[in-house]
Amino acid sequence: MTLWTAKDAAQATGGQATTDWQANGVSIDTRTIQMGDLFVALKDIRDGHDFVAQALEKGAAAALVTHRPDGVAENAPLLIVPDVLKALEALGSAARARTDAKVMGITGSVGKTSTKEMLREVLKPQGKTHAAEASYNNHWGVPLTLARMPQDTEFAIIEIGMSNPGEIAPLSNLAQPHVVMITTVAAAHLEAFESIEGIAHEKAAIMDGLLAGGTAILNADIETTAILQTKAKDIGVTPILFGTKNADWQITDVRLSTDRTIISATHGDADYLFKLSVAGRHFASNAVGVLASVEALGADPTQAALDIAHWLPPAGRGTREVVTLDPARTDETLDLIDDAFNANPTSMTAALEILAAATPVDNVGRIIKGRRIAILGDMLELGGEEMAMHRDLSQDTNLQTADLIHCAGPRMKHLYDALPEEKRGLWAEQAQELASQPAALVDAGDVVLVKGSKGSKVSLVVDAIRKLGHR
């Protein structure tokens, strides 16, 4: 199916097409480019113009560039524009304008990508659904997601993130959503803001792009919910609240077990009882927000409540797996919870509750007793109070149920020093040091949570544990 013709793309961007071409996709990465894609030569760490020849050799339909790069034939299919990023934004805007899709915008300090994937899972049985395959939520990710949107899309889910003030509103204005959802407001990217209230105001800016008559799905349980609700009312949007406190979508019960969450909720005269195929109170809250969003988009929340059981977290965001430690002894396994993509105090608390709800297995490992083990990497971008935030995790009641806690990074050293001596495992300056000795960290029968900010590189420990069974 043709996504962009040379004529349409040139009209959208104001650029000049060197030949007549047709593209059925849009790519910014030659490592994943598909035959027939339009390659967008963005400048980031590297200049995408350096890869245009390679993209065309791999079968790109054309390249979006500011000039013909060296080594590219004079008759190569190009779309020449003054600024590649602005042209990508223009493509995204044109794609948004030509579709009748109901558009959903999602932001929040925690849970954006997981909630986006929940929505994808429950909306796709009800209509043609479009969403980014990864966490594309920044200044190039949002226009790229829009530019990839087929014209016959019925539901589009756009994830919108930020690192600094003033980033969300322009992206929301580009997406022009009918419905927005704010999952939560927490101490993430606090270095760039004076307070958590500042983060709340920035998250609330997603409502600036709402179309007339749009809907804002807001978390009733967070301390800054009043800021979000005031913003909605100030711009003439009636907020729909989800949560446990005086909400339109009221959570009445959440029960966690090792591998599932059972949720009870009410909305109007309707009662909902449904399950997630993963443990997590934060997942439960967002799942109810998803049902509210589905209804606001004009789809069926009852059907969505059934289909949401098929959803599982994306890799690194609470994914759960069984790791066999010895291929010759299939009973020697451990339960690995991979939550190594992101971390702040709120998401750390949620992950530790999942660990506390898990049940280790005795009599299968060298230590005999199965253990709850936390392997924690630094939480980054928390601002001036970051050391205290790490130390204060020692008071978390769910962390106190852990049998052993390994820590990586200079910030997590403050937690390590605050732990009771019997709970201290290993501490290392860098996660690579822990990853070099995975057998010393875990044993068969254990339930192991690995959690930290992406920049802490604690995902290396996840990889090392996975490889234990391949010795």
UniProtKB/TrEMBL annotation:
Report the transmembrane regions from the record: none
The question of whether Transmembrane helix is a record keyword is answered with: no
GO cellular component terms given for this protein = cytoplasm
* Compartment(s): Cytoplasm
Q: Which residues form the Mur ligase N-terminal catalytic domain?
A: 24-91
Which NCBIfam families does the entry link to? murF
**Protein name stated in the entry:** UDP-N-acetylmuramoyl-tripeptide--D-alanyl-D-alanine ligase
Enzyme class label: ligase
For biological process, the GO terms are: cell division; cell wall organization; peptidoglycan biosynthetic process; regulation of cell shape
Biological function: Involved in cell wall formation. Catalyzes the final step in the synthesis of UDP-N-acetylmuramoyl-pentapeptide, the precursor of murein.
Q: In which pathway does it act?
A: Cell wall biogenesis; peptidoglycan biosynthesis
Ranges where the Mur ligase central domain occurs:
106-293
Record-annotated residues binding ATP?
Answer: G108, S109, V110, G111, K112, T113, S114
What family does the Swiss-Prot or TrEMBL record give for this protein?
A: Belongs to the MurCDEF family. MurF subfamily.
Catalysed reaction(s)? D-alanyl-D-alanine + UDP-N-acetyl-alpha-D-muramoyl-L-alanyl-gamma-D-glutamyl-meso-2,6-diaminopimelate + ATP = UDP-N-acetyl-alpha-D-muramoyl-L-alanyl-gamma-D-glutamyl-meso-2,6-diaminopimeloyl-D-alanyl-D-alanine + ADP + phosphate + H(+)
Q: Which keywords describe this protein according to UniProt?
A: ATP-binding, Cell cycle, Cell division, Cell shape, Cell wall biogenesis/degradation, Cytoplasm, Ligase, Nucleotide-binding, Peptidoglycan synthesis
Q: Name one GO molecular function term.
A: UDP-N-acetylmuramoyl-tripeptide-D-alanyl-D-alanine ligase activity
Q: Where is the Mur ligase C-terminal domain?
A: 332-453
Q: What is its EC number?
A: 6.3.2.10
